[in-house]
Q: What sequence folds into this?
């Protein structure tokens, strides 16, 4: 568990330093990532086409950190397809790490999981 937490911290730091936009579902997810120092966060508070068009104009790469539940996976799939069609590269490293190495399924629960894993 401690190794998993370290890997997650490293990925969060890398995302923070990269400055690429990170897409999350809502306000609680935004607040959870802001607590780790990530500031370039996009929430799904507008129609998808507006978010995709805006990101395609301003970014060549994004990270999609929608929740890892059924609804979040649907959002991820739709965003992935639309963004890649617009030539935007998707950074999946943290998402895949959370899926494969942790029990975190809600981004807003990331801090709580980190506390328990330390």
A:
């Amino acid at each position: 568990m401690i190794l998993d937490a370290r890997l997650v911290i490293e990925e969060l730091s890398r995302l923070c330093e990269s400055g690429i936009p990170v897409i999350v579902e809502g306000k609680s997810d935004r607040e959870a990532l802001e607590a780790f120092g990530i500031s370039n966060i996009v929430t799904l508070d507008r129609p998808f086409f507006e978010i995709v068009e805006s990101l395609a104009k301003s970014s060549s790469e994004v990270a999609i950190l929608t929740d890892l539940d059924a609804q979040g996976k649907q959002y991820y799939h739709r965003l992935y397809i639309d963004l890649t069609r617009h030539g935007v590269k998707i950074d999946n490293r943290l998402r895949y790490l959370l899926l494969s190495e942790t029990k975190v399924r809600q981004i807003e629960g990331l801090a709580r999981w980190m506390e328990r894993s330390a």
Remarks:
- The longest strand covers residues 61-64.
- The chain has one domain: 2-117.
